[in-house]
Amino acid sequence: MTRHGKNCTAGTVYTYHERSKDSKSSGYGTKDVRLGKDSIKEFDCCCLSLQPCRNPVVTQDGFLYDKQAILEYIVHKKKEIARKQKEFEKQKHKHSKEDKEIQALAQETLLKNFMAKQGVGSKVEAASTSGSISNMAEGKNKQLPAFWLPTLTPEAKGTVLKKPDEKVCCPMSGKAIKLKDLIDVRFTLIKDGDKRSLITKDARYVCPVTNDVLGNSVPCVVLRTSGHVVTQECVDKILSKDMVDPMNGKPLTAKDIIPLQRGATGFSGAGVDLKAKKAGPALMTA
């Protein structure tokens, strides 16, 4: 009997299509999906809120943020660092107290051993402790109070906190970020006569020099001296000759030209991995 379709189960071979179908329906195997245009952040959107920026600022690495969002992030991180620092100091004080108790116990043990060797006070101590029914005598107060709790077993170790880093890091690049290092960005609105809301438009801004429409498919840079956003082509063909900011006439250096990080178009790579993968257990077959 020949196979007339992919769903035929009369064959003796477990085909690749059947294996893929079973893995997908059962949840086994690595799943991957290609991201579309709607899944890619626009070049003028905040890296935190993923919405068009009202007061855009850019870091030295070219990541764009809304000023309110990045300020709230910095304040939140500083409070979190202060809380972690307080917990670390509390743990440090607790460890120092435990070290002092261990040293005092060691000295007490040495003193008891010395007194026992000298035969002084042994009879008095034996008479005082013999016949005691207290559960706190003879060092029982140092024993395990509840052996059935996992956190109080001798093998259980407490969580050791590390000293927190006092620097607030950028959520995208992971480098230290400061408020004074943020650069205000100025976008030039497109003049097309469209009175719709800015968030509903596909074309929102243009280059102030060449009047080219800006988007994810157009490499853009931020001029540090004025904060205006121009295209990379404008820098290569026009600004690289004189190295002068066309908006205010100030001289430019290589550090003053900050490439703006952007998303892909959804149809081409543009340096961004457009495939999302989620690893899972493999489907084992005999």
UniProtKB/TrEMBL annotation:
The family this protein is said to belong to: Belongs to the NOSIP family.
Keyword Nucleus recorded: yes
Molecular function terms, GO-annotated: ubiquitin protein ligase activity
Keyword Iron: no
Protein name in the entry: Nitric oxide synthase-interacting protein zinc-finger domain-containing protein
Organism of origin: Capitella teleta (Polychaete worm)
Gene3D superfamilies reported in the protein's UniProt record: Zinc/RING finger domain, C3HC4 (zinc finger)
Pfam families documented for this protein: Rtf2 (PF04641), zf-NOSIP (PF15906)
Domain Nitric oxide synthase-interacting protein zinc-finger, first and last residues per copy: 4-78
Coiled-coil region list: none
Alphabetic keyword roster: Nucleus
A cellular component term, taken from the record's GO annotations: nucleus
Subcellular location: Nucleus
Matches recorded under CDD domains: RING-Ubox1_NOSIP, RING-Ubox2_NOSIP
Record InterPro entries: NOSIP (IPR016818), Znf-NOSIP (IPR031790), Znf_RING/FYVE/PHD (IPR013083)
Main location per the UniProt record: nucleus
